[in-house]
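Researcher: Please translate sequence to structure tokens.
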Amino acid sequence: MKEKILKLLKDSGNDFLSGQKISEVLGVSRAAIWKHINTIKDDGYEIEAISRNGYRIVSSPDILTFEEIKNFLDTEYIGKNIIYYDSIGSTNTKAKELAESGQEHGTVIISEEQTTGRGRLGRNFISPKYKGIWMSIILRPNIITENVAQITLIGAAAVQKAIMKMGIETKIKWPNDIVLNSKKICGILTEMSGEINHINYLIMGMGINVNLDGEDIPLDLKERATSIKLECGRFMERKILLANILNIFEKLYIEFVQNDNIKETIEICRKNSMLIGKEIQLVNRGKVTTAKAIDISDNGELIIENNQGAIEHIVSGEVSIRGIYGYSK
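Model: Translation complete:
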């Protein structure tokens, strides 16, 4: 009921909407409307109420519900169904549960806070309330399993392009991190359920440090992690950034899945790579080797020159840069 009232108020724009009108449309008492209005106020909406005129929204909070981002969203299916939580353990864990029960392709699970957020290799991901974008997307692509890694690149390219659209220059650390001023602001975790030749579903989790303050970042991570707000000195509207990411992601995703074309994604990753031309450490299954990053292939592989001078194509692995920026794992 609260969501229906909120939609009516938003649809009325700057015009007042009477309690009587809301009562007639929704078939509930005006007393019930008043109670729900107070609940909406508790969520952070500023609502003006004038006797005989009714109610109107004066300002909305920076929360990531569908009602708050729908006016910025221009997608066919990605984000058209948003399952929103105020707090959750892990959006990826919940997304897997929902995917197993048949939740539709393109569903976005988003929470204002994660209490047990996860990054790659089982690492914890700090996710404070109302300060970041912590979300997971359920995908059911009709592609061969060997191409799953390219979906992660699409996610990285979408975040990169969306942030740059808002006037901030970031870099991509292949394959799944976004870096600002040599520190990580975003990690992407893609998980798959399927067999050798069939994908049941993919879960793409994204964690983006948008408006975190200095005290939100643990002491042991301060040299490696930061937020957009800390680096740029300004608050960013999360709902606009979120909508930008979903809009761009869907465009790149459709081009790949339907047309087998990943050219734009690769171009974004190449142009904004922080690895190409640099000495790196490649950590894979516990083995550490030193190499030079040469390029990103047309298929999204990292092309390296190893310490014997041979050229290799790396499909996946944990890459760190030595002597260039703070975080190395």
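Researcher: Any highlights?
Model: The first strand starts at residue 46 and ends at 50.
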